[in-house]
Amino acid sequence: MAYDDEDPTANPPPAIARDDPSKVEIEDVEDAEADEAVSDFRKFASSLPGGGVNGGGALKNKKAAPHVSSKTVRRGEKDFESHGTRLQENALETSRTAMHDVLSYTRTRAPDNYMTGWYFPDHWAQEAGEDEKPEGLWRRDRVVALEAEKGQMTKSMGRVLRGAPKNVPGWDKAWLLPEEALYLVERGDLLLRWPRGSIEDIFPPPEEVDGLKREVARGEDGDYELGLPLSLQAAYSLFIGNEGDRGKVTLEKFQVYSQLRRAGYLVSRASPLLDPPPPSDTQTLWQRLFSLISSPKSDTPKSHPAMGPLVKPGLYRSYEPVYHSLSLIPRHKPTPNPNTPAPEGPFTVAYHVFKSRPGFTKTNLPLPDFRIAVVNARTTDVPDLAEMEALLDSTPWDPPKVRSGAGGPGIGHMYQRLKHGWRNVIVAVNDNGMVSYLEFMETAFGEEKLFERFDAKPKQGGKKSSGRNQKGGRGGGRGGRGGRGGRR
Amino acid sequence: MNQTQEAFPALPVPVAGLPTGTTREPNASQPEKEPRSAVVPAAPRPTPLTKIHELPIPIRTFPLPSFYPSNPLSLIYIVYTWITQALTAPREPSVVHEGIWSAKTRSVHVVDAKAIRALWEQGFYGKGHLSRSEPNWLKREQARSGTQKQHVAEEYTRQRREERQQMKWDRARKEQEAIRRVRRLESLVAPVGPMELLRLPNSPSDLADLLAPSDAVAESTELLANGQVPSGDVSDLSTASKLQANSSATSAETLVETLLNGNRERPGTPTTTTTTNPYPTPPPDTPVESLAQIKRRKSVRFSPRVESTTFMNSDPPSPSLGTGMNGHGSVKSMDGILTNGAVPIQEPSILPLGNVTSSSDVLPEPVQKSPVSILSTTSHDASLAVVDKEHLQLTREEAFFLAFGLGVLKVRDEKSGELLSTQDLFNICRGYSYFPPRQFNFQPDDPFLVQYAVYHHFRSLGWVVRPGIKFGCDWLLYNRGPAFSHAEFAISVMPSYSNPGWKSQGRKAPAHNWHWLHSVNRVQSTAVKTLVLVYVDIPLPGASDGDVASLLKQYRIREFLLKRWPINRRRD
């Protein structure tokens, strides 16, 4: 069973011994291992209530417990070829039966387990008018009003628009964005309804609320008088639209949204409210004075011999001046406050993603852990320099935390700093539902001057340079990874 | 030209019995080789890598000795050093190497042996044209002919690969053994399942078919006849094969093919083909002709020893396995001879399959007349016989950096033999980055210029930059060099035309689709490298085109790192 995120290596390499603990690599290795494994329906089936492999056909007759939908299929091991043993045949057969049972499981919902939402596509657009302040609540895009908030899901979805005047009907209801509503409908958590009348019929203004009237409105099949229930297909056709359509979401974005939600993240539409203020360039007086005295050492010397050699023949006491004269092409220096125009088009941060954590409230969002832009793999290309700069400069300043300086204990710290980068963003490349997530980091090799280590060497190693020799053996240790032709 | 390889670092002490020149399997017969290692002169203790690659660039620095306040004498030492250096005035770069521009290979050749070593050791420039990376063809030749016991990186790589292969074989064999064990256990249980019942014979004729293969088993075990397969095992196998009896024909064929082709890439087939035979019987429903055929071909496998499947250049073109193919008789006799064990083989390196060849009476005695064997027996003088035919190839970027940046290389024209000026070399490099080469009409986005900007950028920061075509990228970045560690970063160069002037001209960088990016990134993550997209912002064509330094200053370089973001691993 092939998965889209499967690694091409049949055998992931064992953890690599290095002189410094580089977490990133080991994570990658584990990642490869996790990707390798395949869904094991037997374990999943046995996790279902009253299920189990032996339960077999009895499974689907059991009444569904509410927590079933929160379970996901775990992954097991795979065989590559049939080797004609009964053991293997039995395992395959049980797996098949388990998968069949899982797929034929009847999912039901008790009435008190789902919410009801009403579709009002133009309500807030009319109320808010054209001049919506960039408040980051996406008020004009909120198209579904929840009758009552219920369950875990609403902890991170829907917003009551506090700023709205109290005479507006539905002001005290939680309003959903299209992707949230569609996701809830897909999960079976939301019964979506199309209102027959206006919003006042369903959510009467506060002064008219006397409880009695609403009771009357909800008669035997009273909901049908107010509005029709909508199918999942109807929900898709209502909520999926093109880029820029108000009250709709593109299919690519919705797929990314629901995949992130199902993977356990909390997702909110990117809003400028969540970006931390850029760090101000506060220099103390002393720093400023100091910078006046010692004119900053420019990376590129003023004059170069036009026809080389850049390194003028002569006596050199250290490698620093040699490399200084080699420095010709201007190096990028990351700044916290770039003057790049705001990103346009698909390469814009679409979602803010949070790791699930206790105490998360949708009204008081913390700083997002990740920022995700969603692009279509078929209609866009790898971003060019302008798009890349604009996208990354729209994300907050996030310089590497690891201590800088050439005197670090190993090259690993330098690698870590370079790999962390100064800004980062995730681009979800959506190819018709297959989503690949790539993390782009703005890095600056010019900030890490490798040549500064060359002069430090004789001091550390001494005359024998025996300490260095041990380091030389590292390459061999890594080369010995079994199972693959790997790095060369 | 663009191949890159990391030399295996020198081991502190060479292992005594390490096979250097021969390409035997580890499980191949060892004894014949032992006397040879005595003849080979013991290798001197290898120079530490840090000593060999002491200089990061071909320029030596003369740091003043440090001053210790506790030791006043150190001050005198500093003064003394300073005075001597001032008097002798070491001028770096002390040596300017010479290269030849070769239009045919579009690269610069360095033929002087000293220059080759210097350029390789001091910054890892270029590539030996007969080697994967380090120009060590001569060393390899000497090691191969056995005249000198040396550390050759390629040898270690090969050896490591063999070990890995062996490990995979062993693993596959263990899996197969486990499966066979399960099968045997299951065969002891009476057939109850529907498929097993269907497989049972329906009529006496079916039964006869089923019984026929067992004769074949008896026959083949006779062929083996050397007591290597325990008889109990054989009987077990025959009963087991009656029950499951599928796939044995195909597996037998693949086994034969594996042995004949020397193809060791099949993990599914066990190595111990010669000692135990997992599928002795063909399936009962096989026609008689194919049965006979299988029997005949199968006989090849019954050699009591595992043959080497690695072939040297000096090996005979076709190992005479053909005698073994002809029929049972010859195989039997061959086995008989071989198990006596007294086959004198003098030159294992020349005859990895020598036991087969030498045992047949048709061929002459195994005293070889080939020049290599004579050389190797007459020991040391052989190194004189091998002439170093290798030269160093520098890519255009490397050559121009050495000439323009460091000033340690002068390039001569191939035809006229005259020294090329830096400007001439620059123009040649730019022109030859097109096909057909251009003489004029140079653009600021010449492929050479864009690549050179990146090369110069990273070299000027102290990285060792090597071509990365093997990894699907443009350059690889090494810290200190490939002899020390693996490359950490892989560079993909992306030209960029963000200047408004370019936009008005309608110039755009070639678009890369996401599939390209993912495939490149996948390759890098399998090789545990990190992909870096390096955007080179190209300036508009201007007046300063002639001046190399000020032209290069107009390029802008931005680096963006790329990593997969596995959705399931970042959740904590």
In short:
Chain A: This is tRNA-splicing endonuclease subunit Sen54 N-terminal domain-containing protein. The complex is a heterodimer of chains A (about 500) and B (about 575). Chain A is of the alpha+beta class and about 500 residues long.
Number of strands of chain B: 10
Determine Rg of chain A (CA atoms, Å). Answer: 30 Å
Mean pLDDT of chain B: 72
User: What is the percent of helical residues of chain A?
Assistant: 25-40%
Strand order of the largest sheet of chain A: 5-6-4-3-7-8
Alpha-carbon distance between the two ends of chain B: 45 Å
| Cα end-to-end separation of chain A | 31 Å
Structural class of chain B: alpha+beta
Low-pLDDT parts of chain A are 1-38, 50-70, 458-488
- Subunit arrangement of the protein: heterodimer
Number of strands of chain A: 13
Describe this structure in words.
Chain B: Keywords: Lyase, tRNA processing. Chain B: It is an enzyme of class 4 (lyase). Chain B: It catalyses: pretRNA = a 3'-half-tRNA molecule with a 5'-OH end + a 5'-half-tRNA molecule with a 2',3'-cyclic phosphate end + an intron with a 2',3'-cyclic phosphate and a 5'-hydroxyl terminus. The complex is a heterodimer of chains A (488) and B (572). Chain A has 488 residues and is of the alpha+beta class. Among the domains of chain A are: 37-103, no CATH class; 111-249, no CATH class; 349-479, no CATH class. Chain A has helices spanning 23-36, 41-47, 58-61, 86-103, 123-128, 178-187, 199-202, 212-217, 222-226, 232-239, 251-262, 285-293, 319-326, 385-393, 411-420, 452-461, 466-472, 474-479, and strands at 38-39, 75-76, 115-119, 144-146, 159-160, 174-176, 190-195, 227-229, 266-269, 349-354, 370-376, 423-431, 434-443. The longest helix of chain A has 18 residues, at 86-103. The two termini of chain A are 31 Å apart. Mean pLDDT of chain A is 74; it is low at 1-38, 50-70 and 458-488. By secondary structure, chain B is α+β, with helices and mostly antiparallel strands. Among the domains of chain B are: 155-374, no CATH class; 461-572, Trna Endonuclease, Chain: A, domain 1 (3-Layer(aba) Sandwich). Chain B is built from 22 helices and ten strands. Chain B starts with 33 loop residues before the first helix and ends in an 8-residue tail after the last strand. Mean pLDDT of chain B is 72; it is low at 1-40, 216-303 and 319-379. The interface between A and B is large, with 114 and 117 residues. Strand 13 (434-443) of chain A pairs antiparallel with strand 10 (556-564) of chain B, so a sheet runs across the interface.
